[in-house]
Amino acid sequence: MIQTACPLWHDRAVSIRDLLRGLPVFARPLPRFAPADTPGSPDALFVSWLAEAVDAGVVEPHAMTLSTVDGDGLPDTRVLLLKEVDDRGWQFATSAGSAKGRQVAGTAAAALGFYWREQGRQVRVRGTVAALDPQTSAADFRARPVSSRVASLASEQSAVLADPPDLERALATAEAAVAADPDTPCADHTVYAVTPTSVEFWQGDADRRHVRLRYRRSGDTWHKELLWP
Ligand SMILES: Cc1cc2nc3c(=O)[nH]c(=O)nc-3n(C[C@H](O)[C@H](O)[C@H](O)COP(=O)(O)O)c2cc1C
């Protein structure tokens, strides 16, 4: 049985429901968003929002949820880091053999979600997803810090870890391999790109007059539309 030092919730005087209802939301100064002044493509607006998030001190503004669909049609989601946004799409790096890697190999569709809470901003990206060329993945792997390369080489990401010492042994083996040859490649490490078909920018407002702007792609053209909050 797993022992836990966490205090049990029912030792507290307040119910979870009451605690949740009492939590404030958007109770801070939030930026204004004028959809009329936005660029023609969502990438340009995303990059400018990202820069504003960095300037505002948002913690890990490049952390995003990646949602995928498994072979039974069941959605799955997890947090990843955004690696790049360019004309190849919105990129992330992971193990092709992981759960998400297998899911996108089966269903090439994905959604990304960003939440910059300090600014009350959300960005949603929906589209198709594909692995980039192996050279891009290899270059991305080489550019990672040693500890990240060792971790990737050692990991059978998402497989069941039946015996925790297996992980220590795999890390020691990977560490030795990288020490012997710093350019040890990792065939499993893959950069994927999401090609968006729609991108929504959402600016929260304390009075619930949230502003939503969606870009929808039709062929090579982006159309912009406002959505009811
Ligand atoms: C802030 C944050 C950043 C993360 N970045 C990555 C990442 O860039 N790549 C990755 O494979 N996993 C990353 N993870 C771990 C994933 O959330 C996830 O646990 C892992 O990729 C296995 O997912 P899967 O079993 O659905 O394939 C990150 C987790 C957090 C909380």
From TrEMBL:
Which InterPro entries does this chain map to?
Answer: Pyridox_Oxase, Pyridox_Oxase_N, Pyridoxamine_oxidase_dimer_C, Split_barrel_FMN-bd
The segment(s) forming the Pyridoxine 5'-phosphate oxidase dimerisation C-terminal domain are: 190-229
SUPFAM superfamilies attached to this UniProt entry: FMN-binding split barrel
Coiled coil, from the record: none
- What keywords are annotated for this sequence in UniProt? Flavoprotein, FMN, Oxidoreductase
Q: Which GO terms describe its biological process?
A: pyridoxine biosynthetic process
Cofactor: binding comment: Binds 1 FMN per subunit.
**Ranges for the Pyridoxamine 5'-phosphate oxidase N-terminal domain?**
51-163
Q: Does the keyword Nucleotidyltransferase apply?
A: no
Cofactor(s) annotated in UniProt = FMN
Q: Which GO terms describe its molecular function?
A: FMN binding; pyridoxamine phosphate oxidase activity
Q: Any idea which positions bind FMN?
A: 78-83, 100, 122, 157-158, 202, 212
What is stated as this protein's family in its record? Belongs to the pyridoxamine 5'-phosphate oxidase family.
PANTHER family in the record: PYRIDOXINE-5'-PHOSPHATE OXIDASE, PYRIDOXINE-5-PHOSPHATE OXIDASE
| Protein name per Swiss-Prot or TrEMBL | Pyridoxamine 5'-phosphate oxidase
> What organism is this sequence from?
Asanoa ishikariensis
